[in-house]
Structures
1.
Amino acid sequence: MARFVLARLVQSLVALAILSVVVFVLARATGDPLHLILPMSASEEDYANARRYLGLDRPYVEQYVSFVGRALRGDFGTSLRARRPVGELIAQRLPNSLTRSAWRRSR
C-alpha cells in the first residue's frame, strides 16, 4: 500500500512539474505581458523600468525558477484585471466553489 501511495505521489509531482512548465511557456508565448499592463501611451523607458521591476529582463530559466518558488510559497502574483493579489481572490471565492449549494444555484 505504501508503495502505491509513493508511486502516486511521484506521479503527481511529475504532473505538477510538467504543468508548471506548460503554464510558464504559454504565458510567455502569448506575447509581451507589459502590453496588457501598461497604457498605450507608455514610453520605452516605462517599458524598460516595468520589465526590470517584474523581472522580465532576466533569462527564462531564472524567471521560471522564480515563478515556481513564488507558487510554492502561495504567491501567485497580482491579477491584471482585478489589480489584487491572486491568493486573495482565490480565498474569497473558494468557499463558494466548494459548496454544493453554489453548484446547484448555478444550474
2.
Amino acid sequence: MAEFTLPKNSVLIEGKTFKAPAGATNTRRFEVYRWDPESGENPRIDAFELDMDSCGPMVLDAILKIKNEIDSSLTFRRSCREGVCGSCAMTINGKNSLACTKAIDSYSGTIKIYPLPHLQVVKDLVPDLTHFYAQYASIKPWIETQTPAPADSERLQSKEDREKLDGLYDCVLCACCSTSCPSYWWNSERYLGPAVLLQAYRWLVDSRDENTGERLDDLEDPFKLYRCHTIMNCTDTCPKGLNPAKAIAETKKLLVQRKLG
C-alpha cells in the first residue's frame, strides 16, 4: 500500500502566546500562521490575546495592532482598507476573505488567520501571486480594436451595453475565489481559475472590444476553461459578492453558440 508523507517543513508547530495586558476585560484570541523561509524552522501558529477596547472593529485592525504593538515582524499585505485593492486577502476561520471588510464581531470564539491556500508562501500571511498575475496578463485585459478610434470622441457604448459589465469590472483580483477552487488547486498550471475567467468574460462582453473571436479561440481549451466543474466555491467566497461561476458558464455558452452559428 502506498504511503504518503508531508515535507518536514510543512508540519505546523505550536508558536508563541502573547497574553492580553493586565486588567483587560474585553479580549479576543487570534491565532496567526507564521513562517519565515530564512529561519529554517517549521511554520508555527502564534496566539495573540488582544484588548478589544483599544482595537478597531475589523480583522485587519487586529492584525495591524499585532504588528504595531506586539510583534513587528508579522508580514502581510494591505493597502486601501476599503475592500477595493484586494491586498489583504487571507483565510479567516477557514474561508477566504478580505481582512479589511470582515468585522471581528461577525466571528465567535478564536479567530484563526492563515494565508490564502494552495499557493507558495513568501512569508507569514503573504502568498506568492506571480503565477496568478501572469495568468491574468495572458487574457489581455484591455480593449483590443481593429477599427480606428473616432476622431472627435471616445469609443462609446449604450447604457444597456454598459450594464452588461456590472458584476464583472468590480473584481479586485484578490484571488479569494481561485484559491478556494479545487479545480484550480489540482490544475493551476493550465486552468485559468475563476478570477481570471471572470475577467476574460468581462472583455468578451464589452461592446467596444473587437477581438471577441480571438479571445474565444484562446479560451477554447480543455484546461484553460473546461476544468471548471461548477463546484461554486468561487461564488460562495467572493468578498465582493460577484459570481465567477456564472461568468464561466456564460463563456462556455458563447463558445457553443459560435459552433452552432
3.
Amino acid sequence: MTSVQHVVLVHGAWHGAWCFGALQAELDRRGIPSLAVDLPGHGASPLPFTDFYGDAQCVADVLSSLSARGIDNVVLVGHSYGGAVITQASTINPNVSHLVYLAAFAPTSGQSVMSQLLAMPRHDTALGSAMVVGVDGNSTINPEFAQESFYGCCNDEVIAASIARLSPQPMATMTQEVTGSPRVTITSTYVLCLQDQAVHPEHQKIMAQLCDNVITLDTDHSPFVSMVNQTADILERIATS
C-alpha cells in the first residue's frame, strides 16, 4: 500500500482554516489526511493576534505535535501570506517533506512579505484598493472589493460566506523577515494562479523561480474553492509520491 503523507494547510492574511473546507472534504474523499491551522486570532482561534514570528511558531508547534504522534515529514502548504509563514515555520521545525506555495509569497532569508513585494516590478491588483489600514495597526478588507481581490472565479454562495468570515490582519506580519532558507533542503512546489488579483501573476512567476517545481492554474486567488479538484490533484500527487 502506498504511504500517504499528512497535508498541513496554512491560510493567508484575513482568512482562517475555514477557507480550506471544500479542499479538505475532497482530500478526505481521496484518503489524504489533512489538517488546516487557524493562525492566532483568525477563524476559530481564541488566541489574540500575534506577529509574523508568532504565526510561524504556531505552525511549528503543530508540526511538533504531529511528530509527537509519529507523524513526520508532512506536506506543508501555505496560501498567500501563508507562504512566508511556512517558510519560517519549516526553518524552526523542518519536520516537512515538501513545501507547497499556493499563490503565495516565498521569501528568502532576510526578506519579509513586503520587502519581497517591493523588490519586484510594480503591478497593481484589486487587493491594493481593498485594504484598509486602521490606527490599531491592523488592516481589514473593504467587502465591496473582496470578490475581485480573492474570489473572482467562485460562485456567489462561496463568495458571500467567505466575505462574512474575513478578519483583521496585523500589519506587522508583513514587515518581519524570514530567518532561514528551508527550500535549500526541502523540495518545493509553486502553484501559480493566472487570474489572481491579490498576488499578481507576474509576481508569482518571479517567486515561482525560487521553487523546484511550478504548476499553473487558470483561476483566481482562491483555487481551494474555485478549482477544488485540480488543487486536490496537486496535493494528492505530492502526498503519495
